[in-house]
Amino acid sequence: MEDEGRGMRETVQRAKSEGQRNLLTRRPPSTGSGQAGDTGTRGDRKSILRWPWVLCVLFLSCFLSSRISVAATATEILEKVDDLWRGESSFAEMTMHVKTEHYERSMKLKAWSLGKERSLFIITYPPKDRGVATLKAEQDIWNYLPRVNRVIRVPTSMMMANWMGSHFTNDDLVKESRMSEDYDSEVTFEGARDDNNIYELTLFPKPEAPVVWGRIEITVIQETLIPTRSLYYDEDGGLSRTMIFDEVKTLSGRLVPTVMILLPEDKPEERTVITYESLELGLGLKPDFFSRSTLTQKDLVR
Question: Can you give the residue ranges of every domain in the chain?
Answer without folding.
Answer: 79-301
